[in-house]
Amino acid sequence: MFYPQLHISPGMPGQDWLVLAMVMVLGVLAALLSLILYFLLRRRRAERLRIRWADIYGRIIQRTIFHEDAGERDAMPVPVVVARSLGRPQLRQLMIAQLIGAKRAISGTAATNLVQLYRQLALDRDSLHKLASPKWHLQAQGIQELATMEQRDYLTRLYRLTNAQNEVVRREAQGAIVQLYGFDGLRFLDVIDTPLSEWQQIQLLRLLQHAIGTPEENIFRWLRSPNVTVRIFTLRLIAEQHLQQMIPHVTECLLDLSGPVRLQAIRSLGELAATDSVRSLTSAYQAEGLAGRLAILQTLGSIGVQGDLEFLDLQLSATDNRIKLEAARALARSGEEGLQRLDRYPQTNHSPWKEIFQQAKSEWVL
Amino acid sequence: MRTIWFISDGITYGFWLYSIALLSSYLFVGIFAILEMRQYMRLRSFTDYSLLASSPYVPGISILAPAYNEAASIVENVRSLLSIHYRNLELIVINDGSKDDSLQRLIGHYQLVRTDHFTEAAIPAKPIRGIYRSRNPVFHKLIVVDKENGGKADALNVGINVSSKPYIVCIDVDCIIEQDALLKMARPFLDSGDERVIASGGVVRIANGCEIRNGRLVKVHLPESFLPRAQTLEYFRAFLLGRMAWSRLNALLLISGAFGAFDKEIVVACGGYNHATVGEDMELVVRMRRYMEERRLPYKVTYIPDPLCWTEAPASYKILGRQRNRWTRGTIETLSMHRKMCFNPRYGRLGLLSFPYWLFFELFAPIVEFLGLAASVVIYLFGGLNLVSFLTLLGFILSFGILFSVLAILMEVLTFNQYKDSRDILRLVLTALLEPFLFHPFIVWSAIRGNIDLLRKKKGWGEMSRQGFTANKAKVYAKS
Fold it and tell me: N or C: which end of chain A has fewer CB atoms below 10 A?
């Protein structure tokens, strides 16, 4: 912080102006100090309230989780004092947050019970209220709450938001549909013209982790989407879901016009341990840039190239040392014959091959 | 006589214009910081960072931690860094030719063995003496590089050469990093859209006074002694206001050397850290931005205001003076190396706004302040000073400074609110009142000393003694 000191000459603004400016600054200062005090007090009160009720709500949630009487499912036992406490907005939000936290951690009947409690306490109305808010962050929060609590009744409203102008709201709504309908919720991939960020792809893949019934026809179509990020996401999805039957289609993507798509196709083949694709990978090698070549060598190393060690041998003479290293790694990982090839290589005792081979071998040992 | 009055008025009006511009810049910083912080907190309110913890698609990150004579705490610090939650991670500790037994302690504790490791010298640096990895699979993320002494920039360059991941996070090995720090730092790189995120800065907070157990921050307290407390306030202003505002404009010029993430491809393309400056952290960011601007490539430098990194602040005037002296020299060197950018429309906001701000309001401010004060004393001695007006103006400037500090405290209370004890906040307010008299003049004087030392061509970091979180004294980067 800088505090300039000035020489005051008769030509400068009058002293009265300075005094007025100082009074104004002091006034704002006093206001800020009051705000600090106000927020500290408010926060302390909110914290006390939270500590007092979080424990009580926790116990209710615990009881709800273990509630087994099917006949009573429509009415989870909630003490009157707790029901009354939910008249206060901050306590309703506390209850929602605790329910969401618990719901994310469990599944099955216990999770159904929590959803029931959420509806019984009319907390879905709070989430809907957020959905109707003009503030994007509240909308996004409302979407997350409804999706986590499996509120399929509000599908139309959620679906409408998959075209929201705000990117975050749109993304959360798309995620919510996937969370509620699994692979069927990915329909938006047919029409999406904006890029799917890496973050959103990771989010969607996690939501689909336990989804069942892979829509192969759709996957086939998404691999031909004009949206590059949709093609990349689909390749990841295939790998994540271990869809071995899609390997031929993934292999076709090695000829895609987009570099990032080809790179993902190479990686997905590695994750699928697609041994039948070795020939395609080695054929695609020459047309690739450095990143693609390195990815191919890594993939060959991970899936094993018993029948094509000659190809790796050739790469040991590449000008780029990173290529040499990856080829040596792949050879070392392929087993005894690969290691012998490293030993038999003409320059095996010369730099940089010597160091590269030693590293490849030592990594294998460690 | 007329000429003297003309010069006098010229100087006076010059000071006035400068002051008005400076105060306006603080207003701009305050407003932009509030807007950006609001946006960030809203996004954070429903973001589930644990999403990244288990994903195989998170980008690989290499943590680079240079260490010099850190034997007293190195084992504990590495343990803390190894406990960071991140799936695709390697931790590279670079022993920069320590004269103590740092390396032996690491070898002993982490069961390290020397390995054959091919290193492509993508960035020229001092020779590597050996690379070590652990026999114990528990520590498989750890790589220890032993190299000849070459300073922090050189150690980081070696780390970049050894690293195998696409992103690097450069940290000071003695910092305490929050366990979810990398999950939060990775987010901007995953959410970049059309603009490539080339770097992301993190907040550095003061750990003096905090409870630290087994290399982890257990409870946050305000430092007991005045000097670290004043620095806590200063860091609030810098990180919660200054950097937040510049981040909104995508015009950040500085990412703290203690904690920052970078796109390795761009770092290597730019030639890595520069040995020729003691402000290598700022210089790298400026060079990376310049690289992108000159190639007309869309890019962003982002900033995460969450308290993710905690460091020990100098607790004595002697050490603080050395630190600030070095910061001043680093800033001058960086701005001088890239002076071509100043007021150059080719560099957009960077050349027209950010660079001139650093030049006029970060670099020149202590000089103007020092000269202004000296001139006021001389004019007073010659009877030319209207003392009442002078004191009124001084009062205004001081109250504006305090206002800015209090705004930073309010931002902390409204956002991360790390100091749960209300008395800590009140003590911070009291510090804001005392700081202009007990702290700020020393900072100005250290900056002046930095200018003088640079004119004398003094290089190097100067010895930086620290108490250490484990109460052991450590000396870091004690070159020259």
Answer: C
Identify the CA nearest to A328 among candidates A291, A364, A281, A366.
Answer: A364
Spatial distance between the Cα atoms of A130 and A143, rounded to a whole number of angstroms: 8
Question: Cβ contact (<8 Å) for A1 and B369?
Answer: no
Residues A241/A182, Cβ–Cβ less than 8 Å = no
Residue B470 half-sphere exposure toward CB, CA atoms < 13 A: 16
Q: What string of pLDDT tens digits covers the 480 residues of chain B?
A: 677 777 777 777 888 889 899 999 999 999 999 999 999 999 999 898 988 888 888 999 999 999 999 998 899 999 999 999 999 999 999 999 999 999 999 999 999 999 888 888 899 999 999 999 999 999 999 999 999 999 999 999 999 999 999 999 999 988 999 999 999 999 999 988 789 999 999 999 999 999 988 888 999 999 999 999 999 999 999 999 999 999 999 999 999 999 999 999 999 999 999 999 999 999 999 999 999 999 999 999 999 999 999 999 999 999 999 999 999 999 999 999 999 999 999 999 999 999 999 999 999 999 999 998 898 898 889 888 888 888 888 999 999 999 999 999 999 999 999 998 999 999 999 999 999 999 999 999 999 999 999 999 877 666 666 666 654 444 444 333
Residue B377 token pair? 């004393």
Return residues 36-55 of A near B (CB < 8 Å): 36, 39-40, 43-44
**Interface touch A4/B397, C-beta < 8 Å:** yes
Q: Does B366 touch chain A (CB under 8 A)?
A: yes
Residue in chain A closest to B16 (alpha carbons) equals: A6
d(CA B100, nearest CA chain A) in Å: 29
Q: Which two tokens stand for residue B431?
A: 């510090």
Rounded to two decimals, the pTM is 0.90
SS3 string, chain A, reads: CCCCCCCCCCCCCCHHHHHHHHHHHHHHHHHHHHHHHHHHHHHHHHHHHHHHHHHHHHHHHHHHHCCCCHHHCCCCCCCHHHHHHCCCHHHHHHHHHHHHHHHHHCCCHHHHHHHHHHHHCCHHHHHHHHHCCCCHHHHHHHHHHHHHCCCHHHHHHHHHHHHCCCHHHHHHHHHHHHHHHHHHHHHHHHCCCCCCCHHHHHHHHHHCCCCCCCCHHHHHHHCCCCCHHHHHHHHHHHHHCCCHHHHHHHHHHHHCCCHHHHHHHHHHHHHCCCHHHHHHHHHHHCCCCHHHHHHHHHHHHHHCCHHHHHHHHHHCCCCCHHHHHHHHHHHHHHCHHHHHHHHHCCCCCCCCHHHHHHHHHHHHHC
Q: Name the nearest CA neighbour of B435 among B395, B409, B410, B398.
A: B398
